[in-house]
Each structure stands twice: as structure tokens, then as C-alpha cells.
Amino acid sequence: MKASVDDRLAALRGSAKRLDYNARSLAALENNPRCTLRALLDASGSDKGAIATHVGHPPLFGQSSFAITRGNVFEAMVKDNGCAELLRVLRETLELTLPEVGYEDLNDVGGDGRSKERHERTEEVLLRAARGEGDGTLFDHPMLRLLIGGHKVYLEPDLVALRIDGRFHVVEIKSFPIIDEQADSAQVRAATTQACAYVIALRDLLGRAGIGEEAVSDTIVLVAPKDFTNRPTGAFVDARKQVAALTRQLSRIERIGDLVDLLPEDLTFDLDLEKKRPRRPVEELTGALDQVLVTYRPDCLSHCEMAFYCRSRARAEASLDVLGPVVREQFGGIDTTTMVMGLARGELQPSEDQVEMAAALRHAARLRAELEDLGGAA
Hints:
This protein is an alpha+beta fold. It has helices spanning 5-13, 23-31, 36-44, 48-54, 65-93, 115-130, 185-208, 240-254, 256-260, 282-289, 307-316, 325-330, 337-344, 355-377; strands at 103-105, 138-140, 144-148, 151-155, 159-164, 167-173, 219-225, 232-238, 273-274, 277-278. It is built from 14 helices and 10 strands.
């Protein structure tokens, strides 16, 4: 009898404890939606960091302890005295009318900080507020929940604000600066993509109560230090495209069985742990990973634990993926650097679809050769 999808995912994970999704891992799905290996590892709850380390490609990204401390200090300052600084930002910087404000701390429920209890309390107060029955305006660290692939995933935004133009808004508090009304685009994108998971979870909560998704804005309120000071300022970030993209990715997870069906029956990423130490031969685990399609992009290095393994594999295959999607798109129908160089040198016969590209590559090769000759003459 064929194993169920859950059984197959458990077999992929093996003996390790299941790791659930969080806001960061959900955001990473939106960053590289075409990667089958990432989708399978996340859906099975496999420890990507441990797997990458065991095959010799440990992840090197992550926040420094200094950055984490700085972020915590800035968030605490923004929320001090009942979110006094946040209210100033909302009223002054973003010009929002908030005549009356009710603040509710959902970090724990009567001293109980467990996710399930906090989620139940969050659901109660947010639904009351949505129906106009409560007096809350700012909800600190609500505990939201999504059902992903049959598993409950708890998500905790920095803050959810109500009654900004009559709708819920997700507020992201970050410690990177907004200088002359501009912030680092990569950091803004990362923060926004993470916030999209909260938007989807909040819409799910209200939707189950019969409240339409329009009650939750897909415009994120970003609060960060202004210029080179520690004084908070704010900005609106339009997240409609990212919300839509992440929603599509979550629906793909629900169809993970389609990907599992394509795998060999005996495939597993099991580390064969004993006292938390992997015993599985590296060559065997690498062979298992090599059987799954990967889609490497240079920005994977900033958000995926498997990035160095995938980059090594792409280089070994001479894949154009190592040069990024912009370059890859320029060479439509050409997959490898080997093919690019062969066409440029006239060593390969181009197909009908490659004739124009081959001519352009040969022209570029001639120009490069001429420049090299001029440089040698000088």
C-alpha cells in the first residue's frame, strides 16, 4: 500500500525532531518559489542547517548578537509607556487620526506564555475589536496561527494596530535606519515579506469568523530609526504583490503530495542521529540531496541554510543560476555557462532559437578579444 503524504514527509525527515515553519521560513518561500528541495525540506520539517553542515556547506548567515540586542532595545523604546513613541509616529509622521487609543499586551495571558493560550486570547480580543465590541487599538505581540500542511504554525508579529482607516494594520518595528526617507531595499523587502505571513494569518483568523479579508490591510507600517538618530519614524510599504506571492506558495505546500510522488520511494534526508550527532555517511546524504531539483539564486545566501550546497551544485553543473536571475533571463533557452562559451567561440552549432543569441555572443567575444589586444599593446 502506498504511504500517505505525511508518512512520506516523515520518512524524508527521518529520526530528527520536526521543525515547524516560522515567519522567516515562510518569507523564504516567497523569495525563491521554484526550489523543490527547499519546499520538501520545509514541508517535512527537516533541519536544513544540520543537513547543510553535515554535507560540508554550513550556513553562514544570521543576525549578530549585537544586531539582535540593538533591535530589542529599539523595539522596547518604541513600545515604552503604552507605545507612546509609536503613537507619535502614527499621528505625526504618517498623519493618521487616532483620537482614542486602547493598548493591550498579548505577550502572555495571566502569566501563561504558552502559544496555544496566547492564541486563544488573541483570537478573542481581535474578533471583539473587529466587530466593534472592544476598545483596543494597539495589540502588542499577538499570537496568530496558520494551518500549513496539516500542522499548526504560530506566528508573532511585533504589533497589530486597529482603527487605522478602520482596518487592521501589521506594524513591523526594525532597527535599520530610514535615511532621507529611504531605507536599504533588501532589508525593507525582508521585513515586508515576513510581515506578509502575519497579514495572511490575520486574514485567516477573521475569515473563519465570517469577516472579509478587506478588514486587514496589505499595506505594512514600517517603524525604524530616523536618519542617524534613535528617534523612530514611519513609512507605509505596499505589500500586495508579496502577499499574493506568499499566498500562492502556501497553496503549493498544500499540494506537496504532487512533489513527493515524483521522488524515489526510499529517498530520505535522515541524518541518523545518535545523541544529536549525525552518523549517516556524507556521500550517502549528498547523493540523496542530489536527486532533488534545486533552483539556486545568489540571494539564497541571505535566507536559506542550503544555499552553499546549492551553489556548489550549480557550479558543478555549470548552471547559469550562479549568475542570478537577471543574467539567466538574458540567455533564454541557454542553461549552462559551457553552452554560452561554446556559442561565443563558435564551437557549438546554435539551434534555430539560439541564432540571434549566438551572433550576439560571438560579437561580444570579438570585442573582448580586441580590448585584450589593446591592453597587451599598451
